[in-house]
Amino acid sequence: MTGDVHPAWLPPEALRAVGSRRVLIQGGGLLVDTVRAELSRACGRFGGTVGGDGPFDLVLKLSNGRRPPDPDVFVLSRDAGVTVVRADEPAGLLYGFFHVVRLGEAAFDGAFPPRPHRPAIRRRMVQHWDNVDVHPVMGQVERGYAGGSVFWHDGALRADLSRVTAYARLLASCGVNALCVNNVNVHATEARLLTGRLGDVAAIADLLRPYGIRVHLSVSFAAPAVDLGTADPLDPRVAAWWADTTRRVYATIPDFGGYVVKADSEGQPGPFADGRSHADGANALAAALAPHGGVVHWRAFVYNHRQDWRDRGTDRARAAHDHFVPLDGAFGDNVILQVKHGPIDFQTREPVSPLIAAMPATRVAVEVQATQEYTGQQRHVCYLGPMWSEVLGFAPWGSEGPPVAGLAAGLVAVSNVGDDPFWTGHPLAQANLYAFGRLAWDPRLDPVAVLDEWIDLTFGPGATADPRLLRATLHAVMDDSWRTYERYTAPLGVGFMVRPGHHYGPDVDGYEYTPWGTYHFADRDGVGVDRTRATGTGFAGQYPPAWSRVYESVHDCPDELLLFFHHVPYGHVLHDGGTVIQHIYDTHFEGVEAVGAMRDRWSALPAGLVDPALAARVAERLDEQLRSAVEWRDQINAYFFRKSGVRDAHGRRIH
Amino acid sequence: MTGDVHPAWLPPEALRAVGSRRVLIQGGGLLVDTVRAELSRACGRFGGTVGGDGPFDLVLKLSNGRRPPDPDVFVLSRDAGVTVVRADEPAGLLYGFFHVVRLGEAAFDGAFPPRPHRPAIRRRMVQHWDNVDVHPVMGQVERGYAGGSVFWHDGALRADLSRVTAYARLLASCGVNALCVNNVNVHATEARLLTGRLGDVAAIADLLRPYGIRVHLSVSFAAPAVDLGTADPLDPRVAAWWADTTRRVYATIPDFGGYVVKADSEGQPGPFADGRSHADGANALAAALAPHGGVVHWRAFVYNHRQDWRDRGTDRARAAHDHFVPLDGAFGDNVILQVKHGPIDFQTREPVSPLIAAMPATRVAVEVQATQEYTGQQRHVCYLGPMWSEVLGFAPWGSEGPPVAGLAAGLVAVSNVGDDPFWTGHPLAQANLYAFGRLAWDPRLDPVAVLDEWIDLTFGPGATADPRLLRATLHAVMDDSWRTYERYTAPLGVGFMVRPGHHYGPDVDGYEYTPWGTYHFADRDGVGVDRTRATGTGFAGQYPPAWSRVYESVHDCPDELLLFFHHVPYGHVLHDGGTVIQHIYDTHFEGVEAVGAMRDRWSALPAGLVDPALAARVAERLDEQLRSAVEWRDQINAYFFRKSGVRDAHGRRIH
């Protein structure tokens, strides 16, 4: 650790390869200066040089040849002992630089022809659910598991913002280019960021700008009502209010990214209040932003959170599709409909939201949750790269059609970062943030290979005595950790068997008789939600035929989503030949064993191989993960044994 | 209503009968002055006179004949047209005065020979779970359902304490003579009441004193540790600290009542930390209080709140008995062991705590909960007089032995009062506070007759146009409301099927897999907790044989406690010939119907018969009660139908 803060995946050692070279940088401007400063610092440390007469090992140059320029792209080549990064724009040069850092010595080995590197997804954004004031229930960071906010503390902008700079550098190095500074649930103090406290946002923007990151702001749809008594998006005074307010924002922050809006969702205000559509609502803000090049991220997370659990006809999974598909084509060009990756809410296992494939005339961003609300809250190791990779690779029209990554104008992660010394509470959760950025840039990357990058940068050669052992250990602990987490928690895609409110730990019926629309319908005979067209809520019919057919069929439906789409008897036979009930028992016993093995593996690492504070933090969290996994196993198994009366085929203890 | 605050059971009209008489008061002192002021005010309003030459209709006199004087007793007689109240002590005169108020015109009708009125229970106390600071989770009043505290507001003693005087008058009029001003969970600010902020307590004591009410204070057992680094009750420095601190308390408040202590319970500090017993702990404080005549209320609510739900051998119901019976005889004379009426925690239906009968050498106070934590939170009508009457009349050794009321040195109610205009949130919940005082004075009173007193005082003749209709309506709504509440909530004594945390509304499994020791063990075959000696936790064996035998037997156990003592199949036949599962369905349908009838009855009251604000408040709460009862019915029935698979014999809808 450097000082009190862990350097994450950019310890000084990670820049050894570039820092020991003779480097030439051609071009100017803020982002090029950032690259120059990075290289100067690294070369100062590792003996390289920047500038001078050459010869050079590494050349980074802006070549403003093409029009229009391709903003983030860079071209990497190596010939005659010189590695060359060329970019149309400064941002490309910055990404090219960090790519060379990532390659390390491999960037200076042999020769390779010019290859353009272009992000698959243009807007790669982290959103912070950070509150300015400490919220009485949610605290400084809603669903935050890494301490306070790096931006805000107890009602004010932090006096010391040095971590924002370090954070921006980490984000840029994995390709993130946009950041929203406050919670989508906009409370009273936070609403003032847009107006009276814009200077705070500008101060953050100033620190993100050198790393090519634009700042966005969550705003309350009802903001104009304070002055006007109405927020009706079709009222000309409201339009003028937004235009005026937005003009002031851009006067203060010329490269402001835009607004993020959670409207008519879980109590947040929205256009429904005035009988207007979400398109009316989004377009009102979009019109104000358009002259300045800004965008609205309009969240599609709209559903009835006061559902009657007795009403089996209403299905929360259907809600986003039902609300938004009729509006396809009605949104302005600079509206980005932000859709959660699954139809419910960031569960460990959900099908991909059918809405993503149902808005051909609308720009869509996919939202994932790096903060581990439902995946262990950064007390459990749960590497989410494989989940996101599956989501991005999902082909809604079947293998002939484009994958989700090809449909998304943006990828958004709810940040998992706080003022914790390790940034993410669980040190290994840093990998999720890194993987998010990398998969947003290139969704076809193998998430295990991304993990390798992260390991090499974070603990890489020179930073540890036995990199091979460490790498093997980290892979053993992390590669399959999402599926391990899935095994000991809610089974077969049924979801939401968590403690209400804080969402940590098991409570099978916790949400069963609530207004939240999250049910499993377990009875003495079976479990699961019938979402078929034939006999259920019809949600399966929201997919294009390729998947609609698969999900509709209790036989074809993938096991891991069986209970999401079907209510089946406990004796239903899965594709592997086992019954649902035995699958529940088996996976829960196996999941706990796997966590035990993860813990043993970590504790077998020789002392000193990693920073002792980090080793201790991980060990302490693995202890908690094992305790919690045992609790999950015992509750889930006891619950289903009490309901089904079916004994475990292997006679293991169920309470 | 007078001004903004409802007069509860002492509207001016309630004093019409005494206020229209010629009154003589003989005696002096603070409490006699209180009586004199009451009578002067009433006579000023209704045409009577106080003093003068006579003849008199009403004579109140102190007659200090007997030694030692019987502090609270008064003797009432009427002869030759003169009603006479005679008392040894001023307190007796005060209680006699309020008794005459309660009798109204009947006190001045005919003749009756002298009869002494003596409280069955000496210490009749309300305890406030009021915090000085607003607690982040529990708010100003823990488990308070009537707004803020009448004493404290946002960290300080209220500037306007006029409601404390009005409250003291209400309490005295029903016989309460002790009051604890702060929460048994003593947080940091509240701990300072004992030391730096004693003036606040003295200010309250000054207002309670004219009504014969002594002030008590909840203290932290760990208080000495702030100065000494230890709270070990056997450390002489700790003893000296308590002696010193207590001396200062009495120097400030000469009639201070004593301390209330929740030790080693739900995270509160206690003697276990130093390996000492609860007798050691209680005696340390008692020794400091003894020279000044004060007492310690030492709560017996000690149990393992970090129980493993998998461990069926541990039974929270046993805990108080297990902890305290071995200490019988070890407590100082001025220690009062404060025992909750049931062995668990203020559930709608529990057996009487066996500890009450198991401490012959210890003074015991019984604690009930007027604040309706588990009985509808003052949103539901739930008149608790019948429950308390059953508790006080329970004879642990069988009908030959004394009842609980005969064993109790004190009766304590957790107050249901706040700064709400109606005092108790639900206006009809005022009756619970009134009934508490009256039953503490005379436990043999019929709770329905107590309700009559409360109705006559609150809405009595002259105060309403049709007292007969109003009385009939209130009886229809209130008399059986506790049993109605029981019908639509947790069945057959099983308890605790409430939402964790706030405890309002149903959640059958909410506490089932938690560390709180509150389980029902429902599975597909049956439900209930086996607490027998033969096959269960042995709790039934904590009772004297008369009841131990009854509770031990699945056939003799009263139906309403069946699931508290036994785990039975759903088909188990109750004493009325029905099965457990059908009983669950029937009572839940019936309970909702009863609430519907209560609501209809109330809404049929002609406008203007009671204060419109009160009528509206009650109507609004009855709407919520019906909504909630439906929710209870549907969840409980759905839960047990899903588990048992048994259909309702009458084919009613179960979800």
Would you mind describing this structure in some detail?
Two copies of one chain form a homodimer. Chain A has 655 residues and is an alpha/beta fold. The first copy, chain A, has three domains: 106 residues, 2-Layer Sandwich (Chitobiase, domain 2); 335 residues, Alpha-Beta Barrel (TIM Barrel); 123 residues, Alpha-d-glucuronidase, C-terminal Domain, CATH 3.90.1330. Chain A contains 20 helices and 20 strands. In chain A, a hairpin with a 2-residue loop joins strand 4 and strand 5. In chain A, helix 11 runs parallel beside helix 13. The longest helix of chain A has 33 residues. Chain A starts with 15 loop residues before the first helix and ends in an 11-residue tail after the last helix. The mean pLDDT of chain A is 96. At the A-B interface, helix 20 of A face helix 20 of B.
